[in-house]
Amino acid sequence: MNAHACHDPPAISVRPAALTSPEASALIAALNVELEGRYPEPGATHFRLDEAEVQAGRGAFLVAYRDGEPVGCGALRKLDATTAELKRMYVAPAARRLGVSKRILDALEAEARTLGVARLVLETGVRQPEALGLYAGAGFTPAAKFGDYVDSPLSVCLEKHLVPLP
After folding, report:
1. Can you give the pLDDT at residue 82?
2. To the nearest 5 percent, what fractions of the chain are helix, strand and coil?
3. In order along the chain (166 residues), what is the average pLDDT of each group of 10 residues?
4. What is residue 11's predicted lDDT score, i.e. its pLDDT?
5. Which residues, at least 6 apart from 57, have a Cβ–Cβ distance to it below 8 Å?
6. Among 31, 33, 158, which Cα is nearest to 90's?
7. Residues near 142 by beta carbon (within 8 Å), at least 6 away in sequence
């Protein structure tokens, strides 16, 4: 071990994972508990995401690892030929403020470009200032409510138009 090892930042990697994997299941369960705590109102949470929606060519499910331990996740599902929705973004409390969410978001944007997506949309909630800050900092702007969120007073919908890479 080198003399600086205790001061090195933790190694963070982001990799595809099956939505049904033990890592994904544990992260999604923790996310659901956190969201249910922030939004206890009946019908306030929208947890649906199907394995088929994140299969190759249709979307992606990514898990972030910190020093080999799963600490975050995020998903992308195509809504149509040019638009995809970000879903199930989560970082475990012990790994927050380390840049994990930005790494997941960057990886999901790269996946979107690979799928030929020109526009990303997402829904987050009015009681998630951390998420709102992350997305604003990444260039997302307010969008019309869509899908299951149209009538939700607790939902905030955002969008980002992706600039094709040269």
Report:
1. 94
2. 35, 30, 40
3. 53 94 96 92 79 93 96 97 96 95 96 95 95 97 93 94 78
4. 87
5. 115
6. 31
7. 156, 157, 158, 159
pLDDT of res. 41: 86
Total-model pTM? 0.90
Classify each residue of 49-77 as buried b or exposed e, where b means 16 or more C-beta atoms within 10 Å of its C-beta: beeebbeeeebbbbbbbbeeebbbbbbbb
pLDDT of residue 8: 58
> What ranges do the domains of the chain cover?
5-161
- 5-161 CATH, one of 3.40.640.10, 3.40.630.30, 3.30.460.10, 3.40.50.2000: 3.40.630.30
Question: At a CB cut-off of 8 Å and minimum separation 6, what does 65 contact?
Answer: 12, 13, 14, 15, 71
- CB contact at 8 A, 155 and 125: yes
Of 103, 109, 57, 104, give the one whose Cα is nearest residue 85: 109
For residue 147, the SS3 value is helix
Q: How far is CA 41 from CA 38, 87, 155, in A?
A: 9, 20, 13
